[in-house]
Each structure stands twice: as structure tokens, then as C-alpha cells.
Amino acid sequence: MRAHVRSLVDAAWFKRLIIILILLNGVTLGLETWPQVLAEHGRPLHALDRTLLWIFVAEIGLRLYAYRRDFFRDPWNLFDLVVIGIALLPATGPFSVLRVLRVLRLLRLLSAIPSLRMVVTGLFRALPGMASISLLLALLLYIAGVVATKLFQQSSPQYFGDLWTSLFTLFQIMTGDGWSTIALDVMDHQPYAWTFFIVYILVSTFIALNLFIAVAVEALEHGSERTHGEDGADREGPRPTEDPAEPAPARAADDAVLAELRALRGEVAELRRALPLRDEHG
């Protein structure tokens, strides 16, 4: 029975069905944000939402039954379990705000679609490198904040009046939000201030932020190569010399051939020893 359930939850058509139901659930949650649609079709939408939720609960139950302890060894299974568990929390009274968290069910697409799962796994694998770049960027922001406060504190106190104001302004410049307005305001008092802003933007935006992209892309490439390597190994299957399930008749035939080869080798060796004797007598 458990084997049949496992083959069911692992079937491709079953996984596609779950993906379709997740997308349908996302559509219903979106329709519930429209007051007019909710007023006219609120009850059917809520009924459909509850039905889809219990289908997802049943799916989790089938996977638990099929995999038992192995279910908890896969982090994606734990992710699905947490998402569905949040959806089952009461959404009335003081917990009414938890109704908003129902939209988290759409995140199950991350575990249901292999390509999305690979992207998320790659991003998690890139976190150590991103942490180092974040430290570098924070150091750069602090140094630039101290320099900008010393240089522009008197001319533009609204942007660089103190260290915290300068850090916020530089972060805003790093995101590209209104940096030209800030630079022009400072340049009205200090015409050569453009050099500071150009250097800061080049270093912070075009170098440091692009490092995040480079680290993420590298992690995704490594994850893709690893996935393709595993898929290729699965398609090739075990090699003949490593196949423990080789039929007994085939192994017996191989043993017989090896025995004949050994016998033939022995006969050849005897002939080689006999040839010198014939030459001596001749």
C-alpha cells in the first residue's frame, strides 16, 4: 500500500496537478482583494479556498505516509509543512491578521517547480559570499559617510548634517533615488563636489552591487552543473561491472569463458616450452 502511495505522489501528473491547484489558489486569493468580486462571489471563493487547503493537507498527509521519516529529511518537505501549517491557523478574533498569510501558499511553487527550487538553492549557496560583499559595502558606506559629513556638513546640512543623515543620504544615492538632486544642491556651494559623487556611485553601484549578481550567478551555475551531473548519472545507470543484480546465467557464462581462456593460455605455454626441445633434437 505504501509503495502505491509513494508512486502516486512521485508521479509527474500528480505534481503537475498540485502546481495547477497552487496557481488556482493564487487566483482566488487575488480575487478576494476586489471588494466588488468579494461582495458578489465571496462565499464560493471562500469555499473554493477551503477546499484547496484541505487538498493540500491531504497531499502532505500522503507524502508523510509514503516517506515516513524520510519526509523530514528533505528541507523542501519541511517548507511545505510550515506553509500549510500557517494556513491552518485560526483566522478569527485576534488572529484575523493571519488571513493575510494565506498568500504564502503560493510559495509552494518554489518546491513544486524544479527550476525555481534550483534558483532558491543556488541563492542559499551564495549567502556566504554575499555576506562578505555586504561587509565590504557597509565598510565603504561608513567611510564615505564620514568623509561626506566632513566635507558637506556646512553647505548641505539637510543631507549631510550628521553621520546618520549622511549614511541615509549615501544609501539613497547608492539605490539611484534622486542622487542628481542631492549632487546639484551640494554643487551649488562646492562646484567640485561632483568628483566625490561620481567616485562613490562608481564604486558602490557599478562595482559592489554587481558583485552580488556575480556571486549569485556563479552559485546558480554550480548548482545547475551539479543537477545536470546527477541527472546524467541517473540516466546512465550502474555500470555492468558494478551491477549486483546481474542474472546468474550471465555470470555463469562469463565464468565459463574465463575458464576456457585460462586453459587456452596453459596450452600455449606448453607449446612454447616444447618448441625449444624440438629445435635441440633437430
Question: Any chance you could write out the topology, listing elements then pairs?
Answer:
Layout: H1 2-10, H2 12-31, H3 35-67, H4 75-87, H5 109-112, H6 114-125, H7 127-152, H8 157-160, H9 163-174, H10 179-187, H11 194-236, H12 248-281
How would you explain this protein's 3D organization?
It is built from 12 helices and no strands. It is an all-alpha fold and 282 residues long. It has 2 domains: 111 residues, Four Helix Bundle (Hemerythrin (Met), subunit A) (Up-down Bundle); 94 residues, Orthogonal Bundle (Helix Hairpins), CATH 1.10.287. Helix 1 packs across helix 3, helix 6 packs across helix 11 and helix 7 packs across helix 9. The N and C termini lie far apart (81 Å). About 5% of the residues have low confidence.
